[in-house]
Design goal:
226 residues, alpha+beta, Jelly Rolls, DNA Excision Repair, Uvrb, Chain A, 2 domains, eight-stranded antiparallel beta sheet, five-stranded antiparallel beta sheet, 6 helices, 31% strand, binds nickel (II) ion
Length: 226
């Protein structure tokens, strides 16, 4: 399931991020690519040890910890420290799948990548091309979101970034291990959570709300690994 999370960062925060990112050093994006993806990857990245990347990454995590839709959709167990990339001058990233296990350099801890995340930091008017294409059983989905918005998608999906033919596409990308491993289970839990919250608003105090909430938690208890 693809989930769009709007307004993870405010426009002021996006401007601050862009200023910081413009004034630091970028390296070849193949530094974090696996063997197969290195052959199709052409972009720039901040080194994982970059103080700018570490500081901005922390700010993203803080914003996500306060975002109910993110928590409900991702049910995060471990989050990889956010990385940053930039595509310009024809850069693209061909079809690939993200590595299944990632080691967090600072802690040595490994995470299973259940969900991949792209947080857009350029507005769609700033560049042409650069769509993120995510494939699932319904075909390819094209994603190009306003700055400050984010997409969550299963790391099992093949995906690619189309060539940027004008301007620069700056984004943050990272992975997370969810408490709920299977995408189908996470989708059910998210749909149930959204429906229960809607009943809570529309039929405040209805006696079924507590029963549905119990079903939500009992399903989560069945499926979660903590
Ligand atoms: Ni990828």
């Amino acid at each position: 399931m693809l989930v769009q999370i709007p307004d993870v960062l405010t426009q002021e925060e996006v401007s601050h991020f862009r200023k910081e990112l413009d004034s630091t050093n970028w390296v070849d994006g193949r530094v974090t690519a696996g063997y197969q993806s290195a052959r199709v990857k052409e972009n720039m990245q901040l080194p994982e040890t970059s103080p700018v990347a570490i500081a901005l990454g922390r700010r993203i995590i803080q914003a996500l910890e306060q975002n109910p839709l993110f928590i409900s959709a991702a049910l995060p167990a471990k989050i990889f420290p956010p990385l940053f990339n930039r595509y310009d001058g024809g850069h693209s990233f061909g079809n690939h799948v993200d590595n299944s296990i990632r080691r967090i350099p600072a802690t040595g801890e490994s995470i299973r990548t259940d969900l991949s995340v792209t947080l857009f930091l350029s507005s769609p008017e700033e560049y042409d091309g650069g769509e993120l294409i995510i494939e699932d059983t319904y075909g390819g989905h094209s994603v190009k979101l306003p700055a400050g918005h984010m997409v969550l998608y299963p790391s099992t999906s093949l995906h690619r970034v189309l060539p940027v033919t004008r301007g620069s596409r700056v984004s943050s990308f990272f992975w997370l291990q969810s408490m709920v491993r299977h995408d189908a289970h996470r989708s059910l839990l998210l749909n149930l959570d959204v429906a229960v919250q809607k009943i809570g608003r529309d039929l405040e105090g209805h006696s079924s709300i507590v029963e549905l909430t119990a079903i939500y938690h009992n399903l989560l208890r069945e499926w979660a690994e903590v």
